[in-house]
Every structure is written in structure tokens, then in C-alpha cells.
UniProtKB/TrEMBL annotation:
Protein's UniProt keywords contain DNA-binding: no
Cytoplasm recorded as keyword: no
A GO molecular-function annotation: methyltransferase activity
Parent-record interval covered: 154 to 446 of 479
Keywords linked to the UniProt accession: Methyltransferase, RNA-binding, S-adenosyl-L-methionine, Transferase
Binding site for S-adenosyl-L-methionine: C91, S92, A93, P94, G95, N96, K97, E115, D142, D162
UniProt record, GO biological process: methylation
The protein's name: SAM-dependent MTase RsmB/NOP-type domain-containing protein
Similarity-based family: Belongs to the class I-like SAM-binding methyltransferase superfamily. RsmB/NOP family.
Domain SAM-dependent MTase RsmB/NOP-type: 2-285
Catalytic reactions of this protein: a cytidine in 25S rRNA + S-adenosyl-L-methionine = a 5-methylcytidine in 25S rRNA + S-adenosyl-L-homocysteine + H(+)
Record: active site: C219 (nucleophile)
Length: 293
């Protein structure tokens, strides 16, 4: 493949699977081989020097830690599900965020992990098995085909939506323009198609009756997959009582100032943060609570 000149500069992140191991034990164990620090933003996330190769480490092999980038690990943490909740992971394979949810929920409550692609369902099931989580129900199907009025979703309080995206925030995608087959026209058609699905899926997520928190994420740097998707659902969101909340308020880089509420959105920058990522968080404020307070 292509050489990846900026890979060595990228810190290596692992998330401790707190279903199987506590963070301090992981720091101690990994500290025998690497310089390990706790990430300053995301709980349970450890950061190691660029180039640290953990693929064959016993803690990875036995599911005590998972290789997971910082952006990815911010998504479930932004959703902040309560342990007792029912949660849908709408586009879930290979399952990194699904099992991240399971750990945050301390193995309690229930996670419905939906995935359309059959091959990827198998990877999802492997990830779940390795994680030791027992509260995840895998649904092989189209998230858009799940009926929000179905009684089996009546108790769903939160949805994590990490749909297919261009991946333009990742290093390999940013090198794609070097390929001879690269075509700008193809790119713009592909982005448009992705954005159509992303908007539909986000609107669908907001329409589940008991859902009060929805997180939307991409590893894309494109406005069309990020701010534009959020902005397209704002009228629907507000008619349903949702507003944009601010995930990780201390984080500096926010949404591009192209839509209402962009200051609530979270961006990671490929240069500054070594990966491109986007997170939006919708929360429903309980009208009754407001009246009582
Ligand atoms: N959240 C995953 C993780 O952290 O490991 C990564 C998800 S990946 C960006 C998007 C996934 O959505 C792909 O596995 C894709 O097959 C799946 N997908 C695409 N369209 C879907 C649909 N309509 N319903 C359910 N899953 C879908």
C-alpha cells in the first residue's frame, strides 16, 4: 500500500474494557512496555507514544483493552447512557462503540446493536464475544426499517448513530487523492449519497418516542456529512423537543460556523488532533422537569 508518512506522529490510544479490567491495572501492565498516560478528555482511554504496536499484546488478545482512537472513544462517552437504560447502536459493526457503551453501562441495561451488512455482523459478534458483554442484542437489518412505534423499542432512551461516512478524517482516506483512479466527480456523488442516508438515519433516530439523547458521529471532515446533516434535522429536532447539547464543553474545536448551534458541535482536526472527527449531541429536556424547577 501507500506509505503513511504521518503515522509515526499519531499517538496510540487504547480503551480499557472496564467490564474485564480496571484502568489502574491496565496502566500498570502496559507501563512495563510503554510510557502510558490517562487521556485528559476521555475516561478509561490511555494514550501511548506514536508507533507503540499493541496488536499482539495479551491484553488486546483477551479483550481487556481495545485499540480505539480518541474520536471514536468520545462518542459513547458523549452519549452518557445510564447503566439501566435501553440503548440502540444504529450502525454498529465492527462494534467498537457498542462495547464501549456496554462498559459505560457497567454491563447493565440493554443495548440493541443494529447492522445491515451480513459479513460485518459476524465481526460485530466477535467483538462482543471478546468484550465479555452479555447485555447486547444483535439485530441484522436496516436501521431505517426499525419501527419506532414497535413495543420492543418503547423503553429505548438513547441512540448512538455512527453511520457509513467517507472516512475523510482518517489518514488512508486523506492519501486517496494520490491514487491514479481518484476522481473528484465520483467523490462528490459518493458524498451526496452518504449525506442523504446520514440525514434520513438521524431524523429516524430522533423519532423514537422515549429517546432523550441521540449522538451523531462521523470520521469525516466534510461539512456535507457533518454540520449540513445536523442543520437539516434541526426543525424536526426542535419540534420533537430536542436541542443541541455540548459534548466535552472544555474541547476547543467546535463545528464550522455554518449553522445555528454550531458552537455545540465537536470537531477534531486532522492536523491538530491527528484525526478528523465530528460529534453532535441532541438532548430532550423534560418539559415536566422544567415546570417543576
Ligand atoms: N460504530 C462502528 C464502530 O465504532 O465500530 C462503526 C460503524 S461504520 C462507520 C458504519 C456501519 O453502518 C457499517 O458497518 C455499515 O455496514 C452499517 N450500515 C450502513 N447502512 C446501514 C443501515 N441502513 N442500517 C444499519 N447499518 C448500516
Amino acid at each position: 500500500g501507500l506509505s503513511q508518512p504521518n503515522v509515526p506522529l499519531k499517538p496510540r490510544y487504547v480503551r480499557v474494557n472496564t467490564l474485564k479490567m480496571d484502568v489502574d491495572s491496565a496502566v500498570q501492565e502496559l507501563g512495563k512496555l510503554y510510557k502510558v498516560q490517562k487521556d485528559e478528555t476521555v475516561p478509561d482511554l490511555l494514550v501511548m507514544p506514536p508507533g507503540s504496536d499493541l496488536h499482539a499484546h495479551h491484553l488486546v488478545k483477551n479483550g481487556r483493552i481495545f485499540l480505539q482512537g480518541k474520536g471514536s472513544a468520545m462518542v459513547a462517552a458523549a452519549l452518557q447512557p445510564e447503566p439501566s437504560w435501553e440503548v440502540i447502536d444504529a450502525c454498529s459493526a465492527p462494534g467498537n462503540k457498542t462495547i464501549n457503551l456496554a462498559a459505560l453501562m457497567k454491563g447493565q441495561g440493554k443495548i440493541i446493536a443494529c447492522e445491515l451488512n451480513e459479513e460485518r455482523v459476524k465481526r460485530l459478534e466477535q467483538t462482543i464475544k471478546l468484550s465479555g458483554a452479555t447485555n447486547i442484542e444483535v439485530v441484522h437489518g436496516d436501521f431505517l426499517g426499525l419501527n419506532p412505534e414497535d413495543p420492543s423499542f418503547a423503553k429505548v432512551r438513547a441512540i448512538l448513530l455512527d453511520p457509513s461516512c467517507s472516512g475523510s478524517g482518517t489518514i488512508s482516506d486523506r492519501l486517496d487523492h494520490l491514487l491514479p483512479s481518484h476522481s473528484a466527480v465520483y467523490d462528490s456523488i459518493r458524498l451526496h449519497k452518504l449525506a442523504v442516508f446520514q440525514k434520513k438515519a438521524l431524523a429516524h433516530a430522533l423519532s423514537f418516542p422515549q429517546v432523550e439523547r441521540v449522538v451523531y458521529s462521523t470520521c469525516s471532515i466534510h461539512q456535507i456529512e457533518n454540520e449540513d446533516v445536523v442543520s437539516s434535522v434541526l426543525p424536526l429536532a426542535s419540534s420533537l423537543g430536542f436541542e443541541l447539547a455540548t459534548p466535552f464543553p472544555q474541547w476547543q474545536r467546535r463545528g464550522l460556523p455554518v449553522c445555528e448551534g454550531s458552537e455545540h458541535l465537536l470537531r477534531m482536526d486532522p492536523e491538530e488532533d491527528k484525526e478528523g472527527f465530528f460529534i453532535a449531541l441532541f438532548t430532550k429536556t423534560n418539559k415536566l422537569d422544567d415546570l417543576e424547577s
